[in-house]
Amino acid sequence: MVNRRRFLNVATSGICGFSMAYMLGSCSQQTQQQVIKTANLEIKTKVLRMGYQSAGDLVRNRQVLEKRLEPLGIKVEWAQFVQGPQLMEGMAAGKVDVGSVGETPPIFAQVAGSKLVYVVGTQRTPTTGTSSVIAVPPESSLTKFEEIKGQEVYFQKGSASHYFILRALQSIGLTIKDIKIRSIPTIEARAAFLEGRIPVWMTGDPHYAIAQKLNRIRVLRDSVGLDSPGSYYIADRKFAEENPGLLKIIIEELHGLDKWADANRDEVKKLIITEQKLAPDVADLVMSRRTFAGRRGLSPSLIAEQQRVADLFFESGVIPKKINIQEALLPPELYAAITPSEIMV
After folding, report:
1. How many CB atoms are located within 10 Å of the residue 59 CB?
2. 181 near 155, Cβ under 8 Å?
3. What is the per-residue pLDDT across 65-89, written as a single tens digit (0 to 9) for each?
4. In Å, how far are 18, 91, 115 from 237, measured between CA atoms?
5. Interior/surface letters 194-213, b for 16+ CB within 10 angstroms, e for the rest
6. pTM of the entire predicted model
7. Half-sphere exposure (CA, 13 Å, Cβ side) for 166?
8. Angle at 275 between CA 273 and CA 280, to 5 degrees
9. CA separation for the pair 211, 282 (Å, rounded)
10. What is the DSSP string of 193-221?
11. pLDDT tens string 294-307
């Protein structure tokens, strides 16, 4: 097991005077300064530090942010983390400005006192969740999920898997106390699982697909239908408040990239083969379960869904105090200004 720091212990005015992003023209000197304005929203940075997870990141692969921000004199730096909890820990330590995580890590980070804000969410579809599974080795004596009581279950505490197992247990009348949690990042657990040394493993693609191709995994259940609000882009609060124009650009580029990816799945497959060093047949499995449903703005309905998740963690005794998701939000009028209207539903 890997000992984690305090975060995992919880569960472990205008300078240039232009109004459009590319109307820099003769303002190159001002562009070198710390404050610029884009579409009347400030940007007070020259560097955007993006966090991403070991499973890969299409935004980084396509370099859409670099292409958009280079004319503004803004550099993009990327930092990789094994999973969402570690990314949130990096943000709390001041090493990351913005990053993508599941519904669970920001809840645990908020409990730990991190100053974060939700930026934008992700749309869900009826098939979302097919790539997240609770599984056993093929030779396991367990034949159905209902037999999980008393078992050692390996997953990263504070990750999306934590909500997955909580809801899955709830669906069969069990609680988190009915299993023995063994916290370890998915990527670190894979080899042991493939060797049959882990009895129950919670995983997702590409690890799931790799195990499938090796015929070393048998799925007890996936996370379809467990009403997760989906993943989010999260930002450090100070960074977000000082750079709303940059958040607007990020959301716009994410929105456009989702549309591109949905229409160019073969190109996406090539990108993940290269980045994740996957065999083509493994990549086929990953892509068969991957959806590009698009972004979802921080609407009242999405906020209510995320609050429901946080409340469940508290009511189940997983987190020590009740939290208010509203305290990790920007003002509604600012979300309206930085979010495309078609995804604010």
Report:
1. 19
2. yes
3. 999 999 999 999 999 999 999 999 9
4. 25, 10, 5
5. beeebbbbbbbbbbbbbbbe
6. 0.87
7. 24
8. 10
9. 9
10. HHTT--SEEEEETTHHHHHHHTT--EEEE
11. 999 999 999 999 99
